[in-house]
Amino acid sequence: MPLLAHADGVNWQDLGEQEQKVLNRFADRWDEIPAERQSRLERGAQRWIDMTPGERASAKKKLKRWRNMSEEQKTRVRKHYRQFRNLPPGERRRLRKMRQRFTEMPAERRAAIIRQWKSLSRDERTAVRNELRGMSASERRQFRNKWRRLSPAERRERRRGFLHKRSR
Questions:
Q1: Cα–Cα dist 2/10, whole Å
Q2: pLDDT, tens digit, for every residue of 144-163?
Q3: Domains contained in the chain, number
Q4: Do 62 and 109 belong to one domain?
Q5: Is the pLDDT of residue 3 over 50?
Q6: Which domain range does residue 54 map to?
Q7: Distance CA 44, CA 99 (A)
């Protein structure tokens, strides 16, 4: 259970044994860390303690990926996160559900979708995003079902027609 932060921060001795173990790398300089950061670190340690081994492995993987990003990539991720947080709750739920469905797909299907998306020009991707944003959930479902039944050549033709229509 998180401790209440006070003006002097969180006392190292007040942390539980598990929290101290998680935060051990900060032990020598704990008193030099600002109170607000101590509170954030304590909350993070508690979340870590509460995670399953699978969740911890996933968190480690994400942290490693984050550390390997360039500053430009990190800036872009932060911007997208702020945009996401500013969306209405219903839209955030819809996007989370879509992401979950995507991550639960077989790897081959995900790879095919990614290849298909990357094959689109920037203008095509923007046009598709804008069109999908204006649709209701049932309209998006109908669109996906129709799109899946098209051959690659038919899809290319539809994209060209769609972009031509949008540029008028």
A1: 10
A2: 888 888 888 888 787 776 65
A3: 2
A4: no
A5: no
A6: 12-66
A7: 24
